[in-house]
Amino acid sequence: MSAPTLETSRLILRPWRDADIPHWIAMHADARVMEFFPSTYSEEYAKEVAERLRVQLERDGHGWWIAEIKDGGRFAGTIALQEVPFEAHFTPAREIGWRLTRDAWGHGYATEGARAVLDYAFGEMGCNEIVSMTAEINARSRRVMERLGMTRECADDFDHPRLQEGDRLRRHVLYRLLAR
Fold first, then answer.
1. pLDDT by residue (tens digit) across 108-165?
2. Cys-Cys crosslink for 150: which of 5, 99, 174, 175, Cβ 3.0 to 4.6 Å?
3. Three-class secondary structure assignment of the chain
């Protein structure tokens, strides 16, 4: 199944191209972009992840789309829709997420791109619910989730199973959105 290209007024969410890889690598080497992840990515690891995500998007018809700014065709990051890749009290579930280059922050691209992916998930894919999660201390992503109309119940918050006890990122918040 080939992944569709999704468009908003300012973005094109599309499958990967070879030219995206250097931008992906640079984004994951940026400590500010990766502030709420355990670490930045090495170039080799970033390339491995990019190839895996590229294949997944084409195979499944959803996954990690490249977010390209229409005005100028600039790489802005990624908008993702994937199965939650670990077990938790709320899985199995599909999650939406975003990772943008620093120069794409503050323009509403995460919200705009995520809305297009949510429309696709609830429409074409027939999903009933989408979740999103982040480290409790990640206020920027939490604001995007709230702008999307997602809601949080404190009882759903959890310790991320892939992070060690004592890690400042371990406590995660979970937001949910039901099909409209």
1. 999 999 999 999 999 999 999 999 999 999 999 999 999 999 999 999 999 999 999 9
2. 175
3. CCCCCEECCCEEEECCCHHHHHHHHHHHHCCCCCCCCCCCCCHHHHHHHHHHHHHHHHHHCCCEEEEEECCCCEEEEEEEEEECCCCCCCCCCEEEEEEECHHHCCCCHHHHHHHHHHHHHHCCCCCCEEEEEEECCCHHHHHHHHHCCCEECHHHCEECCCCCCCCCCCEEEEEEEECC
End-to-end, the C-alpha distance of the chain in Å comes to 26
Rounded to an integer, the average pLDDT of 67-85 is 97
pLDDT score recorded for residue 120:
97
Per-residue pLDDT for 180 more than 90? no
**Shortest CA distance to 117 belongs to which of 177, 71, 160?**
177
Q: Rounded to whole angstroms, how far apart are CA atoms 63 and 99?
A: 13
The Cα angle at residue 118 between residues 11 and 15, in degrees rounded to 5: 50
| Cβ(98)–Cβ(110) below 8 Å | yes
Of 156, 153, 151, residue with least CA distance to 89: 156
**How far, in whole angstroms, is CA 171 from its chain's centroid?**
18
Residue count (the chain): 180
- Decide: pTM greater than 0.85: yes
